[in-house]
Design a protein that fits this description.
about 575 residues; alpha/beta; Phosphoenolpyruvate Carboxykinase, domain 1; Phosphoenolpyruvate Carboxykinase, domain 2; nine-stranded mixed sheet; 29 strands; binds oxalic acid; binds manganese (II) ion
């Protein structure tokens, strides 16, 4: 008798009509077959075999270089279940419209069946997904990003507990590109894109959009968070989850080489993008990284900004849309060396600097997590790691101080719900515009965000030892427009203060927005920072916050009566605290 998996694969094949169906086993030999197929298709290249063994460059279609949020839909039965921040399509209409594009889409192609586990294979928090795809690049990427093939088949057996995802490149025409999610059925369909989050369905589509729905139904959390462990002198490791919008430095923070290493503070990487968290018997929220690799933004990554990942990228890495040197090595802006002569740009043309960057601003590396020197010995622990702090953050030229601590969980949930950031190249759209991005989940929440805030509030009541909630901003600028804080390895100083606050220490001063480090609260020895810069970094300016509160009020008003009362209450409390300061 056919298993539920085989039945679903048959249905997918009936719709898309591939020439053949291949079940993937996840072996190295199979990976090499995928690479050979990519080379044959002409959009991929082998990099220098001496300096970058088993590394390849893939060039995506120039109109397919980032997640396309305007083409991403949540197809819940009612529009209100998707909420005002998601695109919505009626599930039947979506099946009809996208089904027509998938009909026969794999004719002449191979359908690869990719079973995968999100999370360590033996973890009770992990889940199985199955992606069928006609892209060998997707198969190769999924092998790096998840535990794929036989291990997943073994875990699944004859069970029907898997999230199915149907992906086809279609004709790569952006007018026929749709990424649709059916939260009730826990099903994903994606057509017309071969790029990252649009096409590697385990990542944003399953591990965030569908998983966020499951998490609410089942009482756990699926968040757009890195997971790091901060080791302190004596060897104790304290784990933290941090949510920043795409391309705001989550990977760099998770893999940071600490500026306080000589004082015994070191950062261990558990994950760089997604956290699945469940309440454990010890009363802590325990987190696993559902992914097995890093799909990081290459431009801006160099020895100064992320030494650990640079060390990891020299083997078994798939690069996408980076430039290539005449020695067939990858190159991008910010790598730390000048552009060599004879560079080929991301489109495969001889690079002309007057016509744009050599690498696409959203060029990526896809690398096995285990290759990072900073990978935590606990990164595959089936029980996950206990989380002591949550950190929210974004790019804010003004307003948000370097770091502050919320008063309690409910206030922290409000801080997350009202957070904002200036936009980056990770998604198509205008750059540098401030957009509200609650918990960095705006593009990734599979249901109405008002209900998501409600879920956060509920979880706060259930977790016996809840993480303390903080907000950071590495991107504040002075009057001259320059960044006030050096960032990168120096950010450990902020993590150290967070750790001290978790442990009930750490000098702080109370402000209307929460606790900000006292002047002597941050460990700044060995670092040059002017007194005025520090004051400005920690300043809570009532005028800026007036405008901020008005913007967040307008944003939260979008949710109407569905917004949890307690979130609205926190907004009022914040305004009252400012009034007290101004009139005092
Ligand atoms: C990512 C993103 O790729 O958030 O992680 O865009
Ligand atoms: Mn992300």
């Amino acid at each position: 008798m056919a298993t539920p998996l085989e039945t679903w694969v048959d249905q997918a094949a009936k719709l898309t009509k591939p020439d053949r169906v291949v079940y993937c086993d996840g072996s190295e030999a199979e990976y090499q077959r995928m690479i050979a197929e990519m080379l044959r298709q002409g959009d991929s290249f082998t990099l220098n075999e001496k300096t970058f063994p088993n590394c390849h460059l893939h060039r995506s279609s120039p109109n397919d270089v980032a997640r396309t949020e305007h083409l991403t839909f949540i197809c819940s039965p009612e529009k209100d279940e998707a909420g005002p921040t998601n695109n919505w399509m009626d599930p039947n209409a979506a099946k009809h419209k996208v089904g027509a594009l998938l009909d026969g889409a794999m004719r002449g192609r191979t359908m690869y069946v990719v079973p995968y586990v999100m999370g360590p294979v033996s973890s009770p928090i992990s889940k199985v997904g199955v992606e069928v795809t006609d892209s060998p690049y997707v198969v190769a990427s999924m092998r790096i990003m998840s535990r794929m093939g036989k291990v997943a088949m073994d875990r699944l057996g004859a069970s029907n507990e898997f999230v199915p995802g149907l992906h086809s490149l279609g004709d790569l025409d952006p007018t026929r590109r749709y990424i649709v999610h059916f939260p009730q059925e826990k099903l994903i369909w994606s057509v017309g894109s071969g790029y990252g989050g649009n096409a590697l369905l385990g990542k944003k589509c399953f591990a965030l959009r569908i998983a966020s729905v499951m998490a609410r139904e089942q009482g756990w959390m699926a968040e757009h968070m890195l997971i790091l462990g901060l080791e302190s002198p004596g060897g104790k490791v304290t784990y933290m989850g941090a949510a920043f919008p795409s391309a705001c430095g989550k990977t760099n923070l998770a893999m940071m080489v600490s500026a306080l290493e000589n004082q015994g503070y070191r950062v261990w990487t558990v994950g760089d993008d997604i956290a699945w968290m469940k309440i454990s018997e010890d009363g802590y929220l325990h987190a696993i990284n559902p992914e097995a690799g890093f799909f990081g933004v290459a431009p801006g990554t160099g020895m100064k900004t992320n030494q650990n990942v640079m060390g990891a990228l020299h083997k078994n890495t798939l690069f996408t849309n980076v430039a290539m040197t005449p020695e067939r090595e990858p190159w991008w802006e910010g790598i730390g060396s000048d552009a060599p002569a004879g560079l080929t740009n991301w489109k495969g043309e001889a690079w002309d600097p007057s016509k744009g960057t050599a690498a696409h601003p959203n060029a990526r590396y896809t690398v096995p997590a285990r290759q990072s020197p900073s990978i935590s010995p606990k990164w595959e622990a089936p029980e996950g790691v206990p989380i002591s702090a949550f950190i929210f953050g974004g790019r804010r030229a003004r307003v948000a101080p370097l770091v502050y601590e919320s008063f309690d969980w409910q206030h922290g949930a409000f801080v997350g719900a009202s957070m904002a950031s200036e936009t980056t190249a990770a998604a198509t759209g205008d750059l540098g515009i401030t957009r509200r991005d609650p918990m960095a989940m705006l593009p990734f929440c599979g249901y109405n965000m008002a209900d998501y805030f409600g879920h956060w509030l509920e979880m706060g009541k259930k977790i016996p030892k809840p993480p303390k909630i903080f907000h950071v901003n590495w991107f504040r600028r002075g009057a001259d427009g320059k960044f006030l804080w050096p960032g990168y390895g120096e950010n450990v100083r902020v993590l150290k203060w967070i750790l001290e606050r978790v442990e009930g220490r750490g000098a702080a001063q109370e402000t209307p927005i929460g606790y900000v480090p006292a002047k002597n609260g941050l460990t700044l020895d060995g670092m040059k920072i002017a007194n005025e810069a520090l004051s400005e970094l920690l300043r809570v300016n009532p005028e800026d916050w007036d405008a901020e509160m008005e913007e967040s009020r307008q944003f939260l008003a979008k949710f109407g009566a569905r917004l949890p009362r307690k979130i609205g209450e926190e907004h009022e409390k914040l305004a009252r605290r400012f009034q007290r300061v101004v009139t005092a």
